[in-house]
Amino acid sequence: MTTFLSGIQSTGLQHLGNYFGAIRHHIELAREDGEHFYFIADYHALTTTPKPEELRERVRETAVTYLALGLDAEKACLFRQSDVPEVTELTWLLSCVTGMGLLERAHSYKDKTAKGAKPSVGLFTYPILMAADILAYDSNVVPVGKDQIQHVEMAQDMAGHFNNVYGDGSEGGAVFQRPEARMPKEAAHAKVLGLDGEKMSKSYGNDLWIFETGKKLKKAINRIATDSRPPEEAKDPAGILLLDFLKLFAEAGESAEWCERVQAGGADAPGYGHIKVRLVELIEEHFREARARRDELLRDPGEVDRQLAAGALVARARAAATRDRALAACGLR
Ligand code: AQP
């Protein structure tokens, strides 16, 4: 049986990178046979020391986002990471078999601290908590965007080290299953660029909230980096960030047409302003129904909390069994 597991941080509002790289992929995969665990990573969110009230709100907002976008909570187990404290016990067990060198190679830690994040121990050991999350549910497929591939590889290493030290060496004697990462098929979805052309990220301030609408959406689209070349100048569409955004939402035929017109240049070529207007229309349309569902869900926060609590019960039972197995293997039971 395939067990799918993935998480998403509740550090801010979910953006288009989270949507194409993770949430949409999770919702599609949840229609496949197998078990599906999706958690809201609120322990992870503490690495950014959010205000408590803000964190509580963000957790609910993230759950609402999944449900509004169509996650079938009957088929997929949606829960809050901190409702499963067993993962913190597993984090300790894994940290004792993890070399410092492995963590020192983490790109995400280096990128975040280079961009000014506080280099706390929590941020440094983040990949161990993530490995504990992955391994707690015996997941074998972890759907993530490109930026998280290295963390899944680290979880593979940690599972391997733990099994080598504490497994009984027999074929069925492994304590942890080996997880495999799965990225969205389209490369543009695995790494969605932000308004400045860097990877879209909550902490880089270059993100666009999935449900942004109206004037704020137009304002954000106006921030997409462009250059000062005139519309009539023939341009290579490959280097135009606005067209990358357009391709995320437009049908293939329509995207190809915009690219051809930009490439041809001349009097009929569209200016960046024209592309922006169309992009706003496409985004408004793409999320119209989900936005309405979100409004409905927000009117009944108690129901969202009930769904999270039901998910936590299922998730916790599974994680407790894995924790017990790991404790027994290393002599603590
Ligand atoms: N730009 C992106 N393109 C494709 N996938 C992305 N993901 C994040 N950004 C992009 C995927 O979203 C999932 C959850 O990510 P996360 O919020 O838990 O952590 P993150 O990857 O660190 O996302 P951010 O926005 O960059 O958050 P901050 O800045 O708070 O750390 C993952 O599957 C990720 O691949």
Labels describing this entry:
333 residues; Rossmann fold; Tyrosyl-Transfer RNA Synthetase; 2 domains; 3-stranded parallel β-sheet; 5 strands; globular; binds adenosine-5'-tetraphosphate
Secondary structure: helix percent = 40-55%
Structural class: mainly alpha
Within the largest sheet, what's the order of strands? 1-2-3
In this entry the ligands are:
adenosine-5'-tetraphosphate
Rg of Cα set: 22 Å
Low-pLDDT ranges: none
CATH class of the largest domain: Alpha Beta
Rounded average pLDDT: 95
Work out the number of β strands.
Answer: 5
How much strand? 5-15%
Major β-sheet annotation: 3 strands, parallel
Output the CATH topology of the largest domain.
Answer: Rossmann fold
- Kindly report how far apart the N and C termini lie: 29 Å
Number of separate helices: 15
Second CATH tier, the architecture of the largest domain: 3-Layer(aba) Sandwich
Tell me the series of helices and strands, N- to C-terminal.
EHEHHEHHHHEHEHHHHHHH
State the domain count. 2
| Overall 3D form | globular
Per CATH, the superfamily of the largest domain is HUPs
Structural overview:
The protein has helices spanning 16-29, 42-45, 52-68, 86-95, 100-104, 107-114, 121-136, 149-166, 187-190, 214-222, 241-249, 252-264, 272-286, 288-298, 301-329, and strands at 3-9, 35-41, 76-80, 141-143, 180-182. The chain has 333 residues and is mainly α. The chain folds into two domains: 3-191 and 301-330, HUPs (Rossmann fold); 214-286, Tyrosyl-Transfer RNA Synthetase. The strands form two sheets. The protein has a three-stranded parallel β-sheet with strand order 1-2-3. Helix 3 (52-68) crosses helix 14 (288-298), helix 4 crosses helix 7 (121-136) and helix 11 (241-249) runs parallel beside helix 13. The two termini are 29 Å apart. The mean pLDDT is 95. Residues 8-9, 11, 17-18, 20-22, 41, 144-145, 147-148, 190-192, 199-203 line the site of adenosine-5'-tetraphosphate.
